[in-house]
Amino acid sequence: MTFLYDVDGEVIGDVKYNERLDFYDGRNYTSGSTGYHKGFGQLKDGRFYIIYGTQWQGERDYAEICDGKEIVAEAIKTGNIGELKEFPELMKIYKEDFIHE
Question: Which of 3, 55, 65, 93 has its CA 20 to 30 A from that of 16?
């Protein structure tokens, strides 16, 4: 499990680790730099969080409460839009705020 922090930096619980925002860079799955990973999820109360994972010794995985726009922006950067499909609120944000036709 991964500690979840609120916007004030207080631990408010723990969440299951995932790497939904990683992408394959040709050699590794990463969120942009070697040894670092990102994931996301939604709490039962509707709030979203981003998970920051690390493989580096001395560093710890953690998660932070965030808004849906931040998750959608990260999904666009990593090309993982498909991961948003199980979250209707995130798909709505994607379509309303990020699709410009």
Answer: 93
